[in-house]
Automatic annotation (TrEMBL):
<keyword id="KW-0547">Nucleotide-binding</keyword>
<dbReference type="InterPro" id="IPR008271">
    <property type="entry name" value="Ser/Thr_kinase_AS"/>
</dbReference>
<protein>
    <recommendedName>
        <fullName>non-specific serine/threonine protein kinase</fullName>
        <ecNumber>2.7.11.1</ecNumber>
    </recommendedName>
</protein>
<feature type="compositionally biased region" description="Low complexity">
    <location>
        <begin position="353"/>
        <end position="362"/>
    </location>
</feature>
<feature type="binding site">
    <location>
        <position position="47"/>
    </location>
    <ligand>
        <name>ATP</name>
    </ligand>
</feature>
<dbReference type="InterPro" id="IPR011009">
    <property type="entry name" value="Kinase-like_dom_sf"/>
</dbReference>
<comment type="similarity">
    <text>Belongs to the protein kinase superfamily.</text>
</comment>
<feature type="region of interest" description="Disordered">
    <location>
        <begin position="333"/>
        <end position="366"/>
    </location>
</feature>
<dbReference type="InterPro" id="IPR000719">
    <property type="entry name" value="Prot_kinase_dom"/>
</dbReference>
<keyword id="KW-0067">ATP-binding</keyword>
<dbReference type="InterPro" id="IPR017441">
    <property type="entry name" value="Protein_kinase_ATP_BS"/>
</dbReference>
<keyword id="KW-0723">Serine/threonine-protein kinase</keyword>
<dbReference type="GO" id="GO:0005524">
    <property type="term" value="F:ATP binding"/>
</dbReference>
<dbReference type="GO" id="GO:0004674">
    <property type="term" value="F:protein serine/threonine kinase activity"/>
</dbReference>
<keyword id="KW-0418">Kinase</keyword>
<feature type="domain" description="Protein kinase">
    <location>
        <begin position="18"/>
        <end position="300"/>
    </location>
</feature>
<keyword id="KW-0808">Transferase</keyword>
Length: 416
């Protein structure tokens, strides 16, 4: 479906008292504008969707926002209606998506940032499940942080409920029946294996898809990205096959690199093999859940709280990688430059035997750690055991781990 710029009234007013401002987003659904509520001067987001769309979503999305009203981490919907040839939905204006922030941070997040995000994202999906719905379109683009300068600027919000559906009756709590030969719903990169196999989605599928997002943040890419095929159907089949043949341990091992976690403790603070185990447990649990089984959300969140504990933190401190960009000025201060004008802030990686050099990630802008960022902490006895274990690794093993992890160190200094 082609996206046409929506027609607007002469004074750019929709829904009686919402003034349409500059365009801030666009997709297959339509266009998003920044707007102003003229009753209180609050900033809002205004979504335009062609009324003749093949698959209109805004009406269903509005209904979902009404169901989720008052839930933390879900934007408030103010208006739904028709203006000319378009459906209009007005919701809270938020900040950038996690995908946008991922780009700014060199397409990789630290263990700490992923752990804190995981806790918030699991909570958002738990809230959806508690309202008898499943989300069915987990991807970083649909998780946004709060508006800059607000008290919620580092809180994660879940948006775009166009594909959400009820998995159980709101009154009786009777779960929908298991079915097969279902069409694919969601984003192929992150969807669960069961979804690829045409099985009815339930809560377990949202959680497995979340796990794929967490690993995407850690790894920078997933093994099934970039697969080629003649048709989308064949491509999705190849992606599903790759997910099935990639073991969970192999998917998580070395991301983040244990060697990098030890050699560059000033950046990561802990030997990161400890964190790897928690991601493995998460994926194993989500893939073993029964179709109508209620997930143990508290246990899943504890996995990532344990990661933070191993980092030397008793609780979430709200300092994410994007807050550390440009000497702590944050993501808003990142200047976009042409790749040729970028300065090299890190030396080239050392030569590795029988290893190809990691590709240098092209970005635009610079990043520096905060001057008061001091992750130098004493190692616990548990951490010391990992240090000793790693220090006795054979040279080839260390070389392999360095190859996997070097780009993560560079990513902290090269952001676009």
């Amino acid at each position: 479906m082609s996206v046409h710029s929506p027609s607007r009234t002469s004074n750019n007013i929709v829904g009686v008292h919402f003034k349409v401002g500059k365009k801030i987003g666009e997709g297959s659904f339509g266009i998003i504008y920044q707007g102003t509520n003229l009753l209180n001067n609050e900033q809002v987001a205004i979504k335009f969707e062609p009324r003749k769309s093949d698959a209109p979503q805004l009406r269903d999305e509005y209904r979902t926002y009404q169901i989720m009203a008052g839930t933390f981490g879900i934007p408030k919907a103010y208006y739904f209606g028709q203006e000319g040839l378009h459906n209009i939905l007005v919701i809270d204006l938020l900040g950038p998506s996690l995908e946008d922030l991922f780009d700014l941070c060199g397409r990789t997040f630290s263990v700490k940032t992923v752990a804190m995000l995981a806790i918030q994202m699991i909570s958002r999906i738990q809230s959806v499940h508690e309202r008898d719905m499943i989300y069915r379109d987990i991807k970083p683009d649909n998780f946004l942080i709060g508006r800059p300068g607000s008290a919620q600027e580092n809180d994660v919000f879940l948006v775009d409920f166009g594909m959400a559906k009820f998995y159980r009756d709101k009154t009786t709590k009777q779960h929908i029946p298991y079915r097969e030969r279902k069409s694919l719903s969601g984003t192929a990169r992150y969807m669960s294996i069961n979804t690829h196999l045409g099985r009815e989605q339930s809560r377990r599928d949202d959680l497995e898809a979340l796990g794929h997002v967490f690993l995407y943040f850690l790894r920078g890419t997933l093994p099934w990205q970039g697969m080629k095929a003649q048709t989308n159907k064949q491509k999705y089949e190849k992606i599903g096959e790759k997910k099935q043949t990639t073991g969970i341990r192999a998917l998580c091992e070395g991301y983040p690199s244990k060697y990098v976690g030890v050699m560059y403790t000033m950046v990561y603070s802990i030997p990161t093999a400890m964190a790897t185990d928690q991601f493995v447990k998460y994926m194993q649990y989500s893939r073993k859940l029964g179709f109508d089984e209620t997930p143990d959300y508290a246990w899943l969140k504890k996995l990532f709280k344990d990661v933070l504990h191993d980092l030397g933190q008793e609780e979430e401190d709200g300092v994410y990688d994007w807050n550390l960009l440009n000497d702590g000025k944050g993501w808003q201060s990142v200047k976009r430059e042409k790749p040729a004008s970028r300065k090299r802030l890190m030396p080239p990686p050392p030569p590795l035997h029988n290893q190809s050099q990691p590709q240098h990630h092209q970005g635009t802008g610079e990043v520096h750690l905060k001057k008061n960022h001091q992750p130098f902490k004493e190692f616990s006895s548990r951490q010391q055991s990992y240090l000793h274990e790693t220090s006795t690794q054979d040279k080839a093993s260390c070389s392999n781990m360095l190859a996997n992890g070097w780009r993560r160190i560079k990513a902290l200094f090269n952001c676009r």
